[in-house]
């Protein structure tokens, strides 16, 4: 299955309009996070069910709202997108591994997978706009501890879908992604299957240390491609956990480097 936006008219691609629409999108995201924390999640907590049911309900709410946010940005002319293979996301025990070129990569993936858990950076627990949603959903804090690795692996073993960005932060423009080995260690401990998702953005936008108002001269196009499944058991059989983790991490790094190079060659202007 492919998801793609419709091309917009040239007038909708105007720089100043996109700058205003980008500002409004960021404001909407911030206000939405506060509203979720103050109004929506307290109401959801009143519904019957145990803690797991409440977290699942919160994750599905976030997913629908994130996808609505992507559609709003698309319809406003801020960006376009194309998604290949989305129907293969969201399986029990599936670990979704993606590169991280832009600030809104996580919005895309959580929006696509209705009940996905996610490993997110620890600073989101202190951010006034995001701490409500990340706590209500039960997302995993990426604090780098052994407890975090075990918690994430446990979620996979119990049948949850887990999204993780092995770089831990956004990719520096012009550089290949550098994966930390923690994602591979989690996969070997608990994943039923690993599914890579390659994210290519052309031209680059919302990269690391880049302010929101520094938008490109033309609308960025997000291309998400779901790759073939990887069996973690095949790597677990290669040796002790540290060896298997290193080999799996190397394989993932090579996979993403190759896929991103292919996307770069096929991007407009190349």
From TrEMBL:
- Pathway(s): Lipid metabolism
Q: Name one GO molecular function term.
A: 1-acylglycerol-3-phosphate O-acyltransferase activity
What is the protein name for this chain? Phospholipid/glycerol acyltransferase domain-containing protein
- Note the InterPro entries from the entry: Plipid/glycerol_acylTrfase
Q: Where is the Phospholipid/glycerol acyltransferase domain?
A: 94-202
Keywords, in A-Z order: Acyltransferase, Membrane, Transferase, Transmembrane, Transmembrane helix
Its transmembrane ranges are 20-44
Establish whether keyword rRNA-binding is in the entry.
no
* GO biological process annotation, one example: phosphatidic acid biosynthetic process
Question: Any keyword Transferase?
Answer: yes
Instruction: Tell me which domain of life the UniProt entry assigns to the organism this sequence originates from.
Output: Bacteria
């Amino acid at each position: 299955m492919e998801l793609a936006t419709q091309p917009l008219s040239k007038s909708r691609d105007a720089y100043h309009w996109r700058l205003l629409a980008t500002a409004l999108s960021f404001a909407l995201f911030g206000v939405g996070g506060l509203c979720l924390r103050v109004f929506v999640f307290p109401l959801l907590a009143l519904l019957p069910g145990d803690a797991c049911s409440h977290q699942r309900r919160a994750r599905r709410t976030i997913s629908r709202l994130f996808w609505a946010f992507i559609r709003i940005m698309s319809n406003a002319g801020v960006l376009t997108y194309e998604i290949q293979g989305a129907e293969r996301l969201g399986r029990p025990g599936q670990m979704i591994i993606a590169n991280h070129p832009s600030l809104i990569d996580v919005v895309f993936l959580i929006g696509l997978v209705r009940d996905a858990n996610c490993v997110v950076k620890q600073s989101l627990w202190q951010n006034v706009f995001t701490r409500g949603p990340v706590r209500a959903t039960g997302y995993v804090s990426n604090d780098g501890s052994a407890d975090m690795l075990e918690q994430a692996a446990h979620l996979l073993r119990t049948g949850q879908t887990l999204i993780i960005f092995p770089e831990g932060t956004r990719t520096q423009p012009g550089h290949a992604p550098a994966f930390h080995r923690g994602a591979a260690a989690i996969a070997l401990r608990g994943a039923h299957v690993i599914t890579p998702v390659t994210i290519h953005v052309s031209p680059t936008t919302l990269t690391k240390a880049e302010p929101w108002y520094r938008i490109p001269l033309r609308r960025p196009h997000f291309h998400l491609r779901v790759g073939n499944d990887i069996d973690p058991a095949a790597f677990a059989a290669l040796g002790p956990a540290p060896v298997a983790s290193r080999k799996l991490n190397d394989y993932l790094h090579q996979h993403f480097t190759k896929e991103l190079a292919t996307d770069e060659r096929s991007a407009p202007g190349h």
